[in-house]
Automatic annotation (TrEMBL):
Its EC number is 4.1.1.48. It comes from Ignisphaera aggregans. The keyword ATP-binding does not apply. Pathway: Amino-acid biosynthesis; L-tryptophan biosynthesis; L-tryptophan from chorismate: step 4/5. Keywords: Amino-acid biosynthesis, Aromatic amino acid biosynthesis, Decarboxylase, Lyase, Tryptophan biosynthesis. It comes from the Archaea. Gene3D superfamilies: Aldolase class I. The keyword Amino-acid biosynthesis applies. It is an enzyme of class 4 (lyase). One of its GO terms (biological process) is L-tryptophan biosynthetic process. The lineage of its organism: Archaea, Thermoproteota, Thermoprotei, Desulfurococcales, Desulfurococcaceae. Belongs to the TrpC family. It catalyses: 1-(2-carboxyphenylamino)-1-deoxy-D-ribulose 5-phosphate + H(+) = (1S,2R)-1-C-(indol-3-yl)glycerol 3-phosphate + CO2 + H2O. This is Indole-3-glycerol phosphate synthase. Residues 25-239 form the Indole-3-glycerol phosphate synthase domain.
Length: 250
């Protein structure tokens, strides 16, 4: 059973366990998020993952169409993250299907994944990578779901929040580790805490800084701590044109 969950997380997990499997045939080839990040880094640029989300438990909400959002950011990002969680983020599998049909970019399915059928759905609807959150999974669950994602041909971004999460994750030797500046229990954001965790991640991993990034300065500071990529949702949902500030050093 998933661990360390607050009431809203528990509700999400129970809901996700009951969501049906969408047995549709995948129509797009797989795209590697890791490779895109590495290729952008070779050019000396920060790799941005633009996140499409309708709302969040922190109080954020936006009314931007996925079509307009994607058309603005698609040429400037390493990939697109799509929230598919229904209860608290207003996401849907349909959002991911629609966005995946528009782009030849890696798509990260952002959800609270706690069972294999969610990974199967991710593959079927066109995702190329999934998020596994160390904080809400036991060691055995994390290992099992990571192996199943590999079996399905999907990349896994394994998300950590603190050093305890990191110790749980490192034995799996994943290619990509996400460091979330947001504490899922309190919803508080601390880029300083994320920076400390980033410094603890060995250099050979691809490291994604998640949450709380509001400026190019934030990106540069996190790059100094070892971040290779930056998952940005709220700021881009408020104003997708801000992508130009994030990718250019002005």
């Amino acid at each position: 059973m998933p661990v360390n969950v607050t009431n809203w997380l528990k509700e999400i997990i129970e809901h996700n366990l009951s969501r049906p499997v969408l047995r549709i045939e995948r129509v797009r080839p797989l795209h590697s998020l890791a490779r895109n990040i590495e290729n952008i880094n070779i050019l000396g640029s920060p790799a941005i993952i633009a996140e499409y989300k309708r709302r969040s438990p922190s109080g954020f909400s936006a009314n931007v169409s996925y079509h307009d959002y994607v058309r603005i950011v698609e040429k400037h990002v390493a990939g697109i993250s799509v929230l598919t969680e229904e209860l608290y983020f207003g996401g849907s599998y349909n959002d991911l299907v629609a966005i995946a049909s528009m782009v030849n970019l890696p798509i990260l399915m952002k959800d609270f994944i706690v069972c294999e059928k969610q990974i199967e759905v991710a593959y079927n609807i066109g995702a190329d990578a999934i998020l596994l959150i160390a904080t809400i999974l036991t060691d055995k669950e994390l290992e099992r779901l990571y192996e199943y994602a590999n079996h399905m041909g999907l990349e896994a971004v394994i998300e950590v929040h603190d050093e305890q999460d990191l110790k749980k994750v490192l034995p799996l030797k994943p290619r990509i580790i996400g460091v979330n500046a947001r504490n899922l229990k309190t919803l508080e954001v601390s880029l300083g805490s994320a920076a400390k965790v980033l410094e603890k991640v060995p250099r050979h991993y691809i490291k994604i800084a998640e949450s709380g990034i509001k400026s190019r300065k934030d990106i540069e500071e996190l790059m100094k701590k070892g971040a290779n990529a930056f998952l940005i949702g709220t700021e881009l949902m408020k104003n997708p044109l801000k992508i130009f500030r994030f990718v250019k050093n002005e």
